[in-house]
Amino acid sequence: MKARLPAAHPGEAADATSWIEQELAGCHFRDRRLGQRLRKLLTHMASAIGGSIPLACQDWANTKAAYRFLSNPKVSEHEILQGHFQATRTRFAAVGGPILVLQDTTELTYERAQHERIGATRRVNSGRDKAGRLRMHTVCGLLMHSCLAVTADGLPLGLSAIKVWTRPQFKGTRKLKRKINPTRVPIDQKESIRWLECMRQSVALFGAPERCIHIGDRENDIYEFFCTARALGTHFLVRTCVDRLAGDGQHTIADEMQEVRVKGLHQVEVRGPKGHVSLATVELKYRRIHVLPPIGKQKRYPALTLTVIHAQERHTPKDRARIDWKLIADLPVRSRADAIQMLDWYALRWKVELFHKILKSGCRAEESKLRTAERLVNLLSIYCIVSWRIFWLTMLNRVVPDVPPRLALTGLEMGLLDELVRDKGQVMLRSKTLSYYLTKIACMGGYLARGHDPPPGNTVMWRGLSRLMDIELGARIGAQIYG
């Protein structure tokens, strides 16, 4: 008896346009064959998440073609990701409300015999020699700065900008600071320019700067960034680490905030070093302040009126550091509710950290054996698409669990999941939501789906997705052979 493939949903062909086609539809290469190879390579890498290129490609012909694609001088991260950027813009336009553009930098470390072909990231202490002198060695690798667009509910819509770079040699930052005041160096001569460039790219991509709120950590406390956001008509929310001059220039922001009374309390969930979750009570202060540029840049940049928010824990806990957040934004805060909303938005900055975790732990981007920075950057671009897909499905299950499953899955995938993961008891057809099928994918990755279990996380999702794509490929090949 011949096995039959699960039927597709009405109005959907059995060979429905996959998510890969949707993410790469906006890619344009001068040579059409490069686009075809990218689709095939992304399919292979998505079906073997965390595996090497030979493992994903399975045979020498496809492996060799993958290496040629990654080393092709006509291929760059821009060509690979431009389709995903366009898909992100489509999802941006489809949702309403403010969109948080989360920026962060991550480091990818590699060890190579010819380290100059990769570049340097930093210098670290490697112990002392026999004479007792400190030994320093250069860490080789890449630095990647990402802009991840998420909704206010935490649903990742996709990347809006990316910048990958390396250093020909590492120069000691502390030594440079002894000779040069970093605040006097023009921003376009520093690596910090990446924050401004990625904000410009994101605004140009979405075309609606008033809806974007660019969020960064203390490294993003850059006055030029604030001025650029104002010029672009967009918004920002940054954790500040610089006590800037304020008012008439005779005092600082900290001086003014000391005069502000506590305007409310707020409870936040905090996870301790051992994973224990507790509630912490923080005191809220906020004020609209006239902020001045650094002294060396006052002729080039105007003063700005910004909102400063302080959230400090009332008591110092014994098992962790005290919560002490100092945020600066261009948006007004008129009430305690507005201040809490700012805190909630900034807390979502952790999402971009999770994206980088999937990239490095799930896709194992740092385990690649490619020999040059250019090839590694191209491979990282492909991994970025796979990582976003995993993160997106994980968060869909938490943010919009009751939407129709065809938002993310094809009829073939749903049919296979119904066959592979049997239902316990009788399940009504109308109850088969997206969450229903995503839970089945997680079960294929080791999720137990017990009543008291939290929603599935990224790890079980990437395991389950990898298995599902392998089975789907086998089902398609079986259909071609046996009809």
From TrEMBL:
Residues 303-387 form the Transposase IS4-like domain. Residues 17-75 form the Transposase Tn5-like N-terminal domain. SUPFAM superfamilies: Ribonuclease H-like. GO terms for molecular function: DNA binding; transposase activity. One of its GO terms (biological process) is DNA transposition. InterPro entries: RNaseH-like_sf, TN5-like_N_sf, Tn5_transposase, Tn5p-like, Transposase_11, Transposase_Tn5-like_C, Transposase_Tn5-like_N. Pfam families: DDE_Tnp_1 (PF01609), Tnp_DNA_bind (PF14706). It comes from the Bacteria. PANTHER family: TRANSPOSASE, TRANSPOSASE TN5 DIMERISATION DOMAIN-CONTAINING PROTEIN. NCBIfam families: transpos_IS4_3. This is IS4 family transposase. It comes from Microvirga tunisiensis. The lineage of its organism: Bacteria, Pseudomonadati, Pseudomonadota, Alphaproteobacteria, Hyphomicrobiales.
